Amino acid sequence: MAVLAPELLEKLACPACEHRPPLRLQGDYLLCDSCQRAYPIRDGIPVLLVEEAVPAETIPTAQESQS
Ligand SMILES: [Zn+2]
């Protein structure tokens, strides 16, 4: 599970959405609730690239990653 500073997290926004919605941390991904894209966090660095994003339904949920 990736750890991001809250002040960093609140500055991040989805690059795919016009209105730049905030992202939600889920496991090792940052999730956009607006377009349902999940951006990977690699070595603690969020990769906010549309071409690197995966569909939100393909990443493990918080519950699954704890087991
Ligand atoms: Zn989005």
Our Rg estimate from Cα atoms comes to 11 Å
CATH architecture: Single Sheet
Structural class: alpha+beta
* Uncertain segments: none
Give a quick account of the main beta sheet: strands, pairing sense, barrel closure: 5 strands, antiparallel
Regarding quaternary structure, how should these chains be classified? Answer: single chain
The small molecules bound here are:
zinc ion
Overall pLDDT confidence = 89
User: How many H/I helices?
Assistant: 2
Brief descriptors of the model:
67 residues; 13% helix; binds zinc ion; five-stranded antiparallel β-sheet; alpha+beta; N-terminal domain of TfIIb; 5 strands
Structure, described:
This protein has 67 residues and is α+β, with helices and mostly antiparallel strands. The protein has one domain (6-66): N-terminal domain of TfIIb, CATH 2.20.25.10. It is built from two helices and five strands; from the N terminus they run αβββββα. It has helices spanning 6-9, 62-66; strands at residues 24-26, 29-31, 37-42, 45-46, 54-55. Strands 1, 2, 3, 4 and 5 form a five-stranded antiparallel sheet that branches. The structure holds zinc ion.
Describe this structure in a few short sentences:
With 67 residues, this protein is of the alpha+beta class. Helix content is 13%, strand content 24%.
